[in-house]
Amino acid sequence: MNRNWQSAVVRRLVLLLGACLLLGLVTDQVTLCLLLGISGYLVWTLIQMFRLGHWLEASEFSEQEPPSSHGLWGVIFDNIYRLQRRQQKSRRRLQAVIDRVQASTGALSDAIVMVNSQGCIEWWNPAAEQLLGFRNPDDQGQHITNLIRDPRFIRYFEQNAYSEPLELSSPVIENIRLQYSITLYGTNNRLVVVRNITRLHQLEVMRKDFVANVSHELRTPLTVITGYLETMQDGLALMPDKAPPVWKRALTQMLTQAERMQNIISDLLTLSRLETSDNQVDQGAVNVHELLDTVVNDAMAYSDGKHRVKLECPDSACLTGNREELRSAFSNLVYNAVKYTPEGGDIKVRWLENNYGATLQVKDNGIGIDPQHLPRLTERFYRVDKGRHSQTGGTGLGLAIVKHVLLRHNAVLDVSSKPGKGSTFSCRFPAVRRECG
Predict the structure, then answer these.
(1) What are the tens digits of pLDDT across the range 203-248?
(2) For a Cys staple, 188 with which of 117, 128, 176, 334, CB 3.0–4.6 Å?
(3) What are the boundaries of each domain within the chain?
(4) With 70 as the cut, is the pLDDT of residue 1 above it?
(5) Of the ranges 30-39, 364-373, 392-401, which one carries the lowest mean pLDDT score?
(6) Phi/psi of residue 144, each to 5°?
(7) What is the mean pLDDT of the chain?
(8) At residue 279, does pLDDT exceed 70?
(9) Burial of 235 (0-12, 13-18, 19+ CB in 10 A)
(10) Rounded Cα distance, 135 and 140, in Å
């Protein structure tokens, strides 16, 4: 309260008490006059408080003018009235913004659902009623997992980590594929955006089927061609007359390219199998030390003594998962380190464990990777150096296979690298995967 009004209140109270005291001295009833004066002041104050309370209750539903008064209470009434008017204007502006937001989101074909920190639904747009089957007002305030009951969505919603969207079938419309994206805002509130990706899903299924079918169809004729080329190469050695050098060179190059095509087809079939099969991995206890020892020995044979490959892994290391898939992923990482590390380089394969899970770390001191390429490394056929495949013989599918294997094992791939300094590939498995009992 402003000091001027404080001093005015004090002056009025002093004048009242002074008048009561003077009247008491004149009538020889000082105590009675002071008591009557103070009582009258309290009664007047209570009346003003009651008027204020009635006005506040009435003005909550209408813009009623404040009651007339004077002095301190007149100032209080006026100030509260001005505050009310400002709040009403702000409320109207805010409501107008909310109405525009709701109107714009209501026009979207994507479903928008606002969920509070307890997981209860606060608002949704009309598209959510079509794609998710929400009903207004019956579902207002319901927990979202009571309406979308797919266990995969429940796990996704409760994990509080939404870097990747989730794809599921629509709970109300058959043959409709939906993509769920969740964004955290405020105090653990969530904004759920649901898109209809049926067309994209159909195209992706067609692509996967095409790749799988073509790979299968190419495997048989390529095997026949490779067989005849090997037969012709063996026949050159049995020829009594020396064959022209160009024949031997041509056969060698054809066999090399045929072998490379077989590797591509094999990787395509592996990738197709990982993509088209469900996400349920055949569970089993995998002896990680034995698996990594086999992978490292194969890598040393592939290196032919040109690199130093070192393994650090405890004998008791264990992981729950599919052994063949894990071997494929680990082999691709170690083989890549051999391919892209110059002769005489060091490659270290480490298995690390802590309370949060386990990590496979493949570190080399090779040529390294420029940071701009890191986000796209796991794309199929993506190459950092377009001309390097002729030297390394890679298919460009190895890291894509690693990505899909890790996804099926609830793991993630982290890559850190500096050009000319080497690279470190880390496969991080959750703690639940270490439970091999």
Answers:
(1) 877 877 777 777 777 778 888 888 888 888 777 777 656 767 777 7
(2) 117
(3) 3-103, 109-196, 209-276, 285-434
(4) no
(5) 392-401
(6) -65, -30
(7) 81
(8) no
(9) exposed
(10) 8
Q: Please, which residues have CB within 8 angstroms of residue 336's CB and are 6 or more apart in sequence?
A: 394, 398, 399, 425
427 to 203, 289, 321, 358, 359: CA distances (angstroms): 30, 15, 14, 8, 5
What percent of the chain stands above pLDDT 70? Answer: 88
What pLDDT, in 10s, does the model give residues 102-120? 777 777 788 889 999 899 9
Q: Which CATH number applies to 109-196? A: 3.30.450.20
User: Using CA atoms in the order 117, 118, 122, 125, what is the torsion angle rounded to 10 degrees?
Assistant: 80
Bridge partners (DSSP) of residue 70 are: none
The amino acid at 58: A
Does this model's pTM top 0.70? My answer is: no
Tokens of 309: 């490959």
CA distance 239 to 377: 48
List the beta bridge partners of residue 111.
194
Topology agreement, domain 109-196 and domain 285-434: no
For 285-434, CATH number out of 3.30.565.10, 3.20.20.70, 3.40.50.300, 3.40.50.970 equals 3.30.565.10
pLDDT, average across residues 367-375: 83
